[in-house]
Design brief:
single chain, alpha/beta, Spore Coat Polysaccharide Biosynthesis Protein SpsA, Chain A, two-stranded antiparallel ribbon, 6 helices, 27% helix
Length: 229
């Protein structure tokens, strides 16, 4: 089995990289002449995924024009959050409702995605289907984070995610979710962490460990330091 649709979360305000995001949405910030969004789309296309849905809210016309003016291989559909920003959970559900797919790769473009992730992502996808899961998060040990101040949120034991006194794994910004993970939920403002925490309580949140150096635009200082790498 193979995932055919990817979601990219592009609705946020990017407050931690102000003033850059006063006029440019965070996904369109450039590192070494490539926007964060283009890096993400390039990776998705390299996974032979031909349909991408991305959500917009803040400075949405900038993102719409960017997609319109670039000739990406994949079909890219833009889904607006609406009158209010929906946060990560509501935004994902709104995107899923616009697709007939059941399983989705979901990306946060704040990470500097590149083709070095292809093998890991395919292995994560294979594990997801082999074990008949409805969720899996790509995590990385905080020791591999370029931003040394970024702390872990989770513990990872084999492929089981939990929270305890030693949370040394960071969410990379990529996950696979099944639409049924949002069963009985409505499109409204809520965080995806609500879904994750519910799964953790049931010992049903799963993870895949990335071994790649984790480059992530955490704030303005880190953004500047990532230039030229």
């Amino acid at each position: 089995m193979k995932i055919e649709t990817a979601l990219i979360l592009c609705a946020g305000y990017g407050k931690r990289v102000k003033p850059l995001t006063d006029v440019t949405p965070k996904p369109l910030l450039k590192i070494n002449d490539l926007t964060l969004l283009q890096r993400c789309i390039n990776l998705i296309e390299s996974l032979d995924i031909n349909h991408i849905l991305l959500n917009t809210f803040y400075l949405q016309d900038e993102i719409k024009n960017y997609i319109k003016n670039n000739n990406f291989k994949a079909k890219i559909s833009i889904i607006e959050d609406g009158d209010e920003i929906l946060d990560t959970g509501g935004g994902i559900l709104n995107l899923m409702n616009a697709s007939s797919s059941v399983d989705f790769f979901i990306f946060n473009p704040d990470t500097l995605w590149n083709k070095d992730y292809i093998i890991e992502l395919k292995e994560m996808e294979s594990f997801y289907f082999k074990k008949k899961l409805n969720n899996i998060l790509m995590l990385v040990n905080q020791s591999l984070s370029f931003d040394e101040n970024l702390k872990g949120d989770f513990s990872l034991n084999e492929n089981s995610i939990s929270k305890n006194n030693v949370n040394n794994y960071i969410y990379t910004g990529c996950q696979i979710l099944n639409k049924n993970s949002f069963k009985n939920l409505n499109v409204e403002t809520f965080s995806i962490r609500n879904i994750w925490n519910d799964f953790i309580k049931k010992n049903q949140l799963y993870g895949y460990e990335s071994k790649k150096k984790f480059l992530h635009v955490t704030n303005l200082d880190i953004f500047k330091k990532l230039q030229g790498l």
